[in-house]
């Protein structure tokens, strides 16, 4: 099979021939029809001291099942998170991290909706967003952010603001249901909000926290790190909540499944529509990463093996 690999920090990415992997106990071998590019993986390629395995979100057809698998069988269409080689023609998924794809959805839709949508929905749950409250979403045009904007609106937010890197994304963010947008380098982020969903981290944490109204909540689900001063929390009785999807998938499979069903229901109702910025061949994986790095993507970036 073909798969993408690299040998030193920052790349270059290249396609090589490799043996088709075999599923172990509790694992599925999937023929990949779509692979979602994530910001954390792009950052690892650029920053990790040693090369990492290019994993991520995949969708396709089950072609083999390991011992102990009970929920899926050969021929099922599934999507899930791959911790091994995911930028490949075949990938191995753990059964616990895998979800079925409905008959009326294709692989690209599934890979754009499920994992990113679960993170967006989980972040909103962590924020305890109440109907009528206001929410600001950073990286609002990203794979997760563009779904978070739609989900916030679907869950009854009174005002939704999208934070983006530049004005070129304004119309896109508004088309998702945002009432307004702001740029990261704006002097003011506008009226204070009840919740901030932050997918950026780093230096952006300070202005994101300042954008909160008293008693506001900031949910941090970024791989970008960052530091917050305790005084900035105390002065407005604000809260910062960390969120990681993997902990829910592993520790609360019942909640993971409930959120997954909620996502597909909202998709069927037309309340959430994943947007795909572009589809790239495995040989063009570096170009797909560059779209993320340059912050030019509007929605999800996908590889098509």
What attributes does this structure have?
305 residues, alpha/beta, seven-stranded mixed sheet, 15 strands, 30% helix, 28% strand, globular
Fold and architecture overview:
With 305 residues, this protein is an alpha/beta fold. It is 30% helix and 28% strand. It has helices at residues 39-47, 107-127, 145-154, 170-175, 205-210, 230-234, 245-251, 253-269, 285-293; strands at 2-5, 14-17, 27-36, 56-65, 77-82, 90-94, 98-100, 134-138, 159-164, 180-183, 193-198, 212-220, 239-242, 276-280, 300-303. The strands form three sheets. Strands 3, 4, 5, 6, 7, 14 and 15 form a seven-stranded mixed sheet that branches. A six-stranded parallel sheet has the order 10-9-8-11-12-13. Helix 2 (107-127) packs across helix 8 (253-269). The longest helix is centred in the middle third of the chain and has 21 residues, at 107-127.
């Amino acid at each position: 099979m073909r798969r993408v690999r690299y040998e030193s920090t920052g790349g270059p990415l290249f396609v090589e021939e490799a043996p088709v992997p075999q599923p172990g106990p509790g694992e599925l071998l999937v023929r990949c029809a779509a692979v979602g590019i994530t910001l954390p993986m792009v950052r690892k390629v650029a920053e990790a001291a040693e090369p990492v395995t290019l994993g991520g979100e995949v969708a396709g057809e089950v072609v083999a099942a390991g011992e102990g698998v009970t929920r899926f069988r050969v021929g099922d269409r599934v999507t899930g998170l791959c911790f091994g080689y995911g930028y490949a023609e075949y990938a191995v998924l753990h059964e616990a991290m895998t979800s079925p794809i409905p008959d009326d959805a294709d692989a690209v839709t599934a890979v754009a909706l499920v994992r990113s949508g679960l993170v967006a929905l989980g972040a909103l749950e962590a924020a305890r967003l109440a109907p009528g409250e206001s929410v600001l979403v950073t990286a609002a045009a990203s794979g997760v952010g563009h779904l978070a904007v739609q989900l916030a609106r679907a869950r009854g937010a009174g005002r939704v603001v999208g934070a983006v890197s530049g004005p070129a994304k304004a119309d896109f963010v508004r088309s998702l249901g945002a009432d307004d947008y702001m740029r990261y380098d704006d002097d003011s982020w506008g009226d204070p909000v009840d919740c901030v969903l932050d997918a950026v981290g780093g230096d952006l944490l300070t202005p994101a926290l300042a954008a909160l109204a008293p008693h506001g909540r900031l949910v941090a689900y970024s791989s970008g790190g960052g530091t917050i001063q305790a005084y900035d929390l105390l002065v407005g009785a604000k809260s910062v909540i960390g969120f990681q999807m993997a902990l829910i998938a592993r520790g609360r499979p019942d909640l993971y499944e409930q959120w997954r069903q909620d996502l597909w229901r909202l998709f069927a109702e037309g309340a959430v529509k994943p947007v795909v910025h572009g589809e790239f061949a495995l040989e063009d994986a570096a170009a797909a990463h560059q779209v993320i790095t340059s912050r030019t993507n509007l929605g999800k970036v996908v590889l098509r093996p």
